[in-house]
Design a protein that fits this description.
The complex is a heterotrimer of chains A (285), B (255) and C (288). Chain A is an all-alpha fold and 285 residues long. Chain A has helices at 3-14, 16-39, 41-46, 62-93, 98-112, 115-132, 142-166, 170-178, 183-212, 215-220, 238-245, 251-284, and strands at residues 50-53, 56-59. Chain A folds into 2 domains: 3-59, no CATH class; 64-284, MetI-like (MetI-like fold), CATH 1.10.3720. Chain A has a two-stranded antiparallel ribbon. In chain A, helix 4 (62-93) runs antiparallel to helix 5 and helix 4 crosses helix 11 (238-245). Chain B has a single domain, classed as P-loop containing nucleotide triphosphate hydrolases (Rossmann fold), CATH 3.40.50.300. The termini of chain B are far apart. With 288 residues, chain C is mainly alpha-helical. Chain C has a single domain, classed as MetI-like (MetI-like fold). Helix content of chain C is 77%, strand content 0%. In chain C, helix 4 runs parallel beside helix 7, helix 8 packs antiparallel against helix 9 (189-217) and helix 9 (189-217) runs antiparallel to helix 12 (260-287). The longest helix of chain C has 41 residues, at 2-42. Classes of the chains: A mainly alpha (285), B alpha/beta (255), C mainly alpha (288). Chain B binds chain C through residues 81, 83-84, 115-116, and chain C through 5-6, 9-10.
Chain lengths: 285, 255, 288
């Protein structure tokens, strides 16, 4: 094969990416168009009606946007007290040791568990526990979904943060120790500030994962089309309403579900873009 | 009594990285108050290892063992709390490494911040000015105190790191080849500075540079393969070394 | 006074270490809890027939439960469906992913390559449910029906960015001298890539493919709207087909079949985790 042909071949294969991504956007936009035209974009994302009575169909995305934001935010909060210690364990306290390797294998495996199995575990183990503790009567809901979601994103947040914690120069740490700081003081006052932007971007990417997680949330959130009024109430996320209703939807409802998909796609794309850009910047500095 | 107790004394000090190999072997020496003592020797002779032992830096690495005694004002630091020792013994490293997330002002006060000591605004301002003046950096940075220390030149950064150590008012200042990463002009600056500083603090400096040792130190140690070969007045050692190995090193036949 | 303060700080330091260890250990709990639950509830369902027979109808299952017998049948239809779809997706995704990754590694400075690189990140971060509905629009609508083809398109789109990234990263960390030596010997770019760089990067790319497979094999959402599911063993690629995660989802929703959840989950979980461990082991071995 000569060089020219080789270059052309690589270029043509690389064209696949813009084609696929363009195809995704095109498909979502053309099929969401009907819903946006019928309700108006702004009205669609701020309306909380979701009723498919013939003749008076009303579809609004607000309950699901709220559901997604609530589960993601809660999962993010719940994941911090676990992912940060793991990152410190692997990246600072036991850096390079066997125990650290074992812990990172454990978190890697956690990341590998399929989401449907997380959903099963949440449904058959966590949900009864939530009911037994009298936190909510039906067991399902925003809280249950967020707890399992948190476990799912811990590995992502932890392994990326650990990478940045590892990169804090030894010079700086020794400098701080030489001034009489304890290890926890070095971590709080040197390691965290220096690795801060990297750690922050790890969490942004973890949030990006939580936003679109489908099966776990679908199995645990309770699947009701209302705006959740507390963290123990049931609801639906953007991903779970699609998973629940896509198979039976047609016409305007189908288009509305695609429109929700488009909104979800845009939100995750923006969050991921911000996260990746910050990661790149943190790696360079 | 105070005047009789030496400020720093090594008593059969040993440092080992592994069970088999000792990097520093049975060093015994007494350091005089308010002097500069230079530690010289070829690469790998254990001079930095010895210096770092005084600041209990080896405690950070679980594999490293330190045996014997190191007495600070008569107290064995090996049985003291590292964080207490390190506050009384400052250290300046080979490569200047000001804390990149802190301003110049905060860098000088970082010892206090790290130790959780609260100072009033007045105390802070005074400490910063005094420390920066004693490293002759005050005039150069007094208008940019709130900028990050990483924008300074290498020599300025190293002086900032010295100021950072001095701000804690240590009894002893350890310097591990503090000028090896600097240009000749910055080196001269720091050497002049040390001459001034010895009025306030006892300095122990590891250096590769024989000229530097001759210019600044009153006493010198020569180490070879972890042993203290010779220790005495710098002038005497340079003019009339008593050991063959010292002689070989000083005449450039070794190292 | 001073010593009291030091004691205080040392106590805080110790407390932090213990907190880090405690919470790190707690993080490991879910893995063992999930493994344990799936193992305990699923191991007695695994038998030869579980892997060779298709899922029973709800009626048959109901009868068996009424008679107090174990539910007959297994997940063979799902295993075969997963193999067919994953196989088709992998066959297409591996060469295209490698070529795309090679393009990115060869032209790191080009504007177009930077766009492709960005789009790869975008695709990798796209929720799988969206890949599912888009593939529905792309394939199921024009073909007027659910099919194994549609399912494998969805899996292909999910695998592609993973393979591109692992290829690109592996090629980038190869020593530059390798490529230069190849070119110096008179090989052209294509031959150096095929004969020198790609073989040298084989380990990394292979691990990347394994991880990509383990990532998509458990995907449920993109298959729900593309492959749909099918209760008998089928090899046709233009008809609806089942997959192991789809079966788990079916069992979860059908009260008569719930007993089968655990056997199917155990099989899927063990498969995915083993694949992960192998990939991790190979990555470590090839890195040395």
């Amino acid at each position: 094969m000569n060089d020219k042909l080789y270059k052309v071949l690589l270029f043509v294969t690389a064209l696949l990416m813009p084609l696929v991504c363009g195809g995704i956007v095109y498909a979502l936009v053309t099929d969401a168009y009907e819903a946006f035209e019928h309700f108006g974009f702004f009205h669609f994302i701020t309306s909380q009606e979701w009723s498919y009575t013939d003749g008076n169909e009303q579809y609004g995305a607000l309950p699901f946007i709220t559901g997604t934001l609530m589960t993601t935010l809660l999962a993010f909060i719940f994941c911090i007290p676990f992912s940060l210690p793991v990152a410190l364990f692997v990246g600072e306290y036991f850096k390079g040791t066997k125990v650290a390797a074992v812990l990172s294998t454990v978190t890697d495996l956690l990341a590998g568990i399929p989401s449907i199995i997380y959903g099963l575990w949440g449904f058959y183990t966590l949900r009864p526990l939530i009911m037994a503790l009298n936190i909510s009567t039906q067991g399902s809901g925003i809280l249950t979904a967020s707890l399992v979601l948190a476990i799912m994103i811990v590995p992502y947040a932890a392994s990326l943060s650990a990478e940045f914690i590892k990169m804090v120069p030894n010079d700086l740490k020794e400098g701080a120790y030489s001034l009489g700081a304890t290890r926890s003081e070095v971590i709080r006052k040197i390691v965290f500030p220096v690795a801060g932007s990297g750690i922050f971007s790890s969490y942004i990417l973890a949030i990006g994962r939580a936003l679109g997680e489908t099966m776990t949330v679908t199995m645990l959130i309770g699947n009701t089309n209302n705006i959740p009024d507390s963290i123990t109430s049931t609801g639906n996320s953007m991903a779970s309403i699609i998973a629940n209703q896509f198979g039976e939807a047609s016409d305007l409802r189908f288009s509305s579900l695609i429109a929700i998909g488009l909104v979800l796609f845009l939100i995750t794309a923006i969050i991921n873009m911000i996260g990746k850009m910050m990661i790149k910047r943190a790696r360079i500095s | 009594m105070e005047s009789i107790t030496p400020i720093l004394e090594f008593n059969k000090t040993c440092v080992s990285y592994t069970k088999q190999t000792m990097a520093v072997k049975y060093i015994s020496a007494t350091i005089d108050r308010n002097t500069i003592t230079a530690i010289m020797g070829p690469s790998g002779c254990g001079k930095s290892t010895l210096l770092r032992a005084v600041n209990l830096m080896h405690n950070l690495y679980p594999n490293i063992r330190v045996d014997g005694e190191i007495l600070l004002n008569g107290e064995n630091i090996l049985s003291m709390e590292p964080i207490e020792v390190r506050r009384r013994v400052g250290m300046v490293f080979q490569r200047p490494a000001p804390f990149p997330t802190m301003s110049i002002y905060d860098n000088v006060l970082s010892g206090y911040a790290l130790n959780g000591i609260r100072l009033s605004k007045n105390e802070k301002d005074e400490t910063v000015e005094h420390s920066l003046r004693s490293v002759a950096l005050w005039n150069e940075v007094k208008d940019v105190l709130n900028k990050k220390g990483t924008f300074l030149s290498g020599g300025q950064q190293q002086r900032l790191c010295i100021a950072r150590a001095l701000a804690m008012k240590p009894d002893v200042l350890l310097m591990d080849e503090p000028t090896s990463a600097l240009d000749p002009i910055a080196t001269t600056h720091i050497e002049e500075l040390m001459q001034e500083l010895q009025k306030e603090v006892t300095i122990l400096i590891v250096t590769h540079n024989m000229g530097q040792a001759m210019r600044i130190s009153s006493k010198s140690m020569f180490m070879y393969l972890g042993e203290l070969v010779e220790y005495g007045d710098t002038a005497t050692m340079f003019s009339n070394p008593s050991d063959e190995r010292t002689k070989a090193y000083l005449t450039g036949k070794m190292g | 006074m001073a010593t009291k303060k030091i004691k205080n700080r040392l106590a805080k330091d110790k407390a932090m270490l213990w907190a880090v260890c405690l919470f790190s250990a707690l993080t490991a709990v879910p893995l063992f809890a999930i493994l344990g639950e799936v193992l305990l509830r699923g191991y007695d369902q695994l038998s030869w027939s579980f892997f060779t027979e298709p899922t029973p109808t709800a009626y048959k299952a109901m009868k068996a439960i009424e008679a107090g017998e174990p539910i007959p049948g297994g997940i063979a239809n799902g295993i075969i469906g997963t193999m067919i779809m994953l196989g088709m997706a992998t066959i297409v995704a591996v060469p295209t992913g490698i070529l795309c990754g090679a393009f990115l590694a060869e032209n790191p400075k080009k504007r177009f390559a930077q766009i492709v690189s960005y789009l790869t990140d975008l695709l990798q971060g796209t929720p799988s449910v969206i890949i599912g509905i888009v593939t529905y629009i792309w394939v199921v609508v024009p073909m007027k029906g659910y099919s194994a083809i549609a399912g494998s398109v969805a899996l292909f789109v999910m695998m592609l960015p993973l393979i591109i990234r692992s290829t690109e990263e592996t090629l980038k960390i190869l020593p530059q001298s390798l490529k230069e030596a190849g070119l110096a010997l008179g090989g052209n770019r294509a031959r150096v890539m095929m004969k020198v760089q790609l073989p040298a990067a084989f380990g990394g790319i292979f691990t990347g493919v394994l991880l990509a497979i383990s990532r998509v094999i458990g995907e449920t959402a993109p298959l729900m709207f593309t492959a749909l599911g099918c209760s008998f063993i089928r090899f046709a690629i233009d008809k609806p087909i089942s997959a192991v995660p789809l079966l788990i989802w079916e069992f979860f929703n059908d009260p008569n079949l719930q007993e089968l959840i655990w056997g199917a989950s155990l099989f899927l979980l063990l498969f995915v985790l083993t694949l992960n461990l192998i990939a991790k082991y190979l990555a470590k071995k090839w890195n040395q």
